[in-house]
Amino acid sequence: MTLHTAVLHGPHGAAPSATAQGAYELAHSAAAQGTQGTQGVHRLVQNVDWAAIAPPAIVAVAALVVLVADLFLTERRKGLLGPLSAVALALATLSLLPLAGEDRHTFCLTAGPRACSYVADPFTLSLQLLVLGGAFVTALLSMTPVRQERLPAGEFWFLLLSSASGAALLPASRDLATLVVALEVASLPAFALVGLRRGQRLSSEAALKFFLSSVAATAVMLLGVSFVYAATGSMHLETVAEALPRVDSRLGTLAATGVALTLVGFAFKTAAAPFHFWVPDTYVGAPVPVAAYLSVVGKAAGFSGLILVAVRAFPSYADAWGPVLAVLAALTMSAGNLGALRQRSDRAHGAVRLLAWSSVGQAGYLLVPIAAAGVTGHDGRAVGATVAYALMYAVVNLGAFAVVAAHRPPGGDGRLDDYRGLARSHPWTAAALAFFLLCLAGLPPGIVGLFAKVTVFSTAVDAGLGWLAVVMAVNVVIALVYYLTWTALLFRPAVREPAGAGPTPVPVAIPLPLTVTVALTSVLALATSGAPQLLLRFADIALF
């Protein structure tokens, strides 16, 4: 006899009493509530797609391993942390292969409209390839400077991996809270990396300027995110996009202010004018590998966040942010190229400073397709053009920084004049640097740079932004001056020291890690110039 039968009929099948009837109803109600509670618990439980989150997770776990290993390794063995970090970044990059061609979602809401906090789609995978590949090249680039400049190895590799994990998480984030957390995980370790050369005034000043500027931008962005959440009641990008057009008229000003402040915060992370003044001093004060990392991986993180909030969360405000980004693109590329044009060949740290201003100019080109997406409302091809250009820029810019690191002795001031006669003393690295500079300029044989610029240019023309296309063409011509000036220096005779000034310096061999870095980036640049469709295909596919 079951429990409910015994309660209902009583012993020996007697008629139920009022008390028994009440007990049955109470038991039935409790059982129903228990069933609902059990179902509610099951609704809260979801499977985590570990394959989808593997790229940033591998890097994060590796950072913790490095942190713990640093406590037990002797100083002589801490050099092993560099290869360990490089292997972890390589594994994280390879973990992208099983995800190719798929759209995978995890950490999703279990009730209401489907909204997920982590999405592995073509946009995510292409940006994660850039971030993790760029971090891997940075790891190769860093092994020699970490040893030569006596940087604390444990701290350096832990901070680099921590920042890379945040940068890899950011393009997969699909809610504002995760976006902000990922951006700060990418940014906070970068502050420490910039100031890691203890006791050097330039390094401390660069870290402080970078920190104060970034914190101010983060505060503005957080205020904007809070306003957007207050107006829409949601953090997920897709839900925000649906709610913004239907916001109560009394909250319209709050929503518009939130959108503006959020975009301003992300514009800082991309080094867009007028939020670019921290770039030259920060790059000069940081170790060369950290400057290379910020110019590629840091910029990729900023642009992925800007694309997500502008295109995915705020499409209803595209008629406002589209023209504003077009103006910012024109200002950014003009400020960057004019700043690079002013660099003198005899100025201390001239090589890194020129690459810093160049990176500001390149940020202006990267903004053009995003502005075109806002003006036309067709974001697929425009966003793809930004990704294709960013991949090209990452390869050749990391290669240029690798050559700078290879030919900058510890304590050297890195003047452009130091590269005079490099074609005679180190012909292969001189040829590589010349090729990288021609790619950045968009001149043959740097075919990939030329085609990437044409792709970006065409998005502006197709969007009806003819004035922006003209500004871009003028800036490309301005950039030719300083890129070709540096290229010409490589083949000019070296400046001879006066008689009796001291022994003639003997060319030194380039350390193996730097040689591998230069060779790897050269091969990638040559391969993409021979087959530019490898990168330009991103401009022809729907990334979202």
From TrEMBL:
Alphabetical list of InterPro entries matching this protein: NADH-Q_OxRdtase_suN/2, ND/Mrp_TM
Compartment(s) where it occurs, according to its Swiss-Prot or TrEMBL record: Cell membrane; Endomembrane system; Membrane
Bilayer topology term: Multi-pass membrane protein
EC number: 7.1.1.-
Enzyme superclass (EC): translocase
GO cellular component terms attached to this protein's record: endomembrane system; plasma membrane
Domain NADH:quinone oxidoreductase/Mrp antiporter transmembrane residue range list: 173-478
Domain of life: Bacteria
GO BP field: ATP synthesis coupled electron transport
Residues spanning the membrane: 50-73, 80-100, 120-141, 153-170, 176-196, 208-231, 251-278, 290-314, 320-342, 354-375, 387-407, 428-452, 464-485, 506-527
An annotated Gene Ontology molecular function: NADH dehydrogenase (ubiquinone) activity
The reaction(s) this protein catalyses: a quinone + NADH + 5 H(+)(in) = a quinol + NAD(+) + 4 H(+)(out)
Keyword presence, Nucleotide-binding: no
Keywords for the protein's UniProt record, in alphabetical order: Cell membrane, Membrane, NAD, Quinone, Translocase, Transmembrane, Transmembrane helix, Transport
Subunit description: NDH-1 is composed of 14 different subunits. Subunits NuoA, H, J, K, L, M, N constitute the membrane sector of the complex.
UniProt function note: NDH-1 shuttles electrons from NADH, via FMN and iron-sulfur (Fe-S) centers, to quinones in the respiratory chain. The immediate electron acceptor for the enzyme in this species is believed to be a menaquinone. Couples the redox reaction to proton translocation (for every two electrons transferred, four hydrogen ions are translocated across the cytoplasmic membrane), and thus conserves the redox energy in a proton gradient.
Sequence similarity: Belongs to the complex I subunit 2 family.
Full protein name: NADH-quinone oxidoreductase subunit N
Organism: Streptomyces reniochalinae
Gene name in the database record: nuoN
